[in-house]
Every structure is written in C-alpha cells, then in structure tokens.
Please model this.
Amino acid sequence: MNSMDSPPAPHHQRASRPGVASYDFGGAVALVTGGASGIGEACVRARVAARAHVVVADLTRDAAQALADELDSESARVVAAQVDVSDQAAVQALGGSVEERFGRLDLAVNSAGIGVTNQPVADHDPQMWRNVLAVNLDGTFLSLRMELDLIRRTAGRGSIVNVASVLAHRGWAGSAAYVASKHAVIGLTRTAALENAELGVRVNSVSPGFIETPLLVERHDAEARAAIGALHPVQRLGTPDEVAETVVWLLSDSAAFVTGADFAVEGGLLSR
Model:
C-alpha cells in the first residue's frame, strides 16, 4: 500500500432514495477484516457502493486482491491487505499501512473469524479451543485496539462494528469454543463502547443467524442447509447482504445515538 494524499473529511449521510438502503460515505476510510468472503465481502461491497475508501484485509491475500481489483481497478479507492488478526505485529502493521496509504481511519468492521468442528466440551481439543479463541476473540481485540487508536488520532470520531453471532446469545452443543468466543465479543464491544463514547467513537456489534456463506456451503450439503434454514422462523438461511445492511446503518450517522448495542440479524431464531 503506497502513500497518497489524505481523502477529505467524510460525510456519512443517507441518500435521499425512498425505499432503498443507500448511504453516502464519500471521503471516509473503512477497514474490513475478513473482507474477502462471506459477510466481510458483503460489507466491503456495501462500503464501496457508498463511495468509501476501503481496505480489504484478509488472511488470503490473493482473494483480497481479486475483490479489490474487481471493485476498483483504476482509482485505487479499494486496496487489499493481508493480515492474520491473531498476530499482534501483523495487526499493528496493517494499521500502519492504512495510515500511510490514506492518512486516517473512520470506519471499521471486524468480520474475521473461524468455526469449529463438532466437539463436546468433555472431548474438546485444547489446541482447537485456543485456535478459535485466538482468531475470534484475540483477533477482534487486537483489531479493535489498533482501530480505536488510529481513529482517535487521525479522524477524531468514527464507528466500529464487530461481527458476533446468534450463538453469542445461547448455547450450541458441540461448538463450545465458537460460542464462548462470540459471547466474549459482545462483552468486549460493550466495554469499548463505554470507554470511547465521550471521545466520539461508537462501537457496536451484529449477531447474524446462520448465513449462506461459502464456509457454510462448504461444510453442509443442500439438504443440511435447508434443515438449518428451517430452524429460523422465517424458514431460510440469511444472506451476507442482509447482515451488511445492518452494518452499514450502524456505521452511518443515521445511528449516531447507537453505541454498545448488539443487533441480532437472525430471522427470529432467538425468539423460539
């Protein structure tokens, strides 16, 4: 990522198109971790559509670069970066690259995460536990820590959304590490929101239900996905775009009085 003139101060206004969830983030700089696929990719696409400068950060550099090239091959308004969010040095280096490239950070979405194979607590592999917590919880913490510092120093105000899960609100047999990590993400979100509210930085989270991402499709055949979808009162899986719609609202000034909140985007699953 090469240096360039800093973009102008951002305006996060809702566009005046009745019935269309359209926002204008022209001038804002946004970072999305886990941005090359699934919910992260949908969030990247939504930020680009809203005219933000976007850093697509992902463990897989080629996938991040492919998305950046697809969305913005000429103006360099969308750039790719490789990062292992569980690596503190790598996360700090990412922050340095964002600052060098754009001079500021206004918005961030922490979407990087991994799942876990079905393992009851009594038989849970400690190394798998550690790996899941390292990415889902430590990775969110390290990213959030870097983003808060960068936003406060360069933009003065901003908004961050962490991606939790519907399983942050309930137990789920066989997924202890994942469930524990996502419960913790909500606690981390609320604490960071309290600490930064007076500084002008809002921190919220979203809790998606089961979303039809490439990871879910890879792990479950069509019959299994239909069965999972039927767990939701709306009788289907969610889409990444449906989660991104909530995220873009939380990032915008339309949600200026919202911080420390978690928004469940889960087709009614928690109401059962």
